[in-house]
# Entry
Amino acid sequence: MVMQLCLGYMKGEQELAKDLSQEVFMSVWNALDKFKAQSSYKTWIYRIAVNTCLKYIRDKKGKLNITNVEISEEAKDEESNTTLQFDALYRAIGKLSEVDRLIIMMVLDESDYSLISDVMGISEGNLRVKIHRIKKTLKETLENEK
# Structure
């Protein structure tokens, strides 16, 4: 779940997402004694992951330049269609606002709407509207890339 969230924030950049995932779990380990059980562990870890990603983005603002890597014809033959679709999806997710990225990554992780609404601090009804709009935006973005 943490890796998926980091992938979304890092626009599909695998190595960077792995590094941030590691940083998240180091933060979780270091802060375990501070967990107050006011929410579930999952909610708490999500919040740490989001804060870690946002901190990275703020610290690297202007320096973070993830470009689309051109794929050679040989590589295209080797890569599966599914991998290319995931790459396109992560690029599209990367174009969303930070809040929308968090929401859609939690949806893709199959989190309950109640958990997502707790993490986001919004009602489930408002969450459903946001998810519908995010999906519509992603669909339009993916169709425009074709």
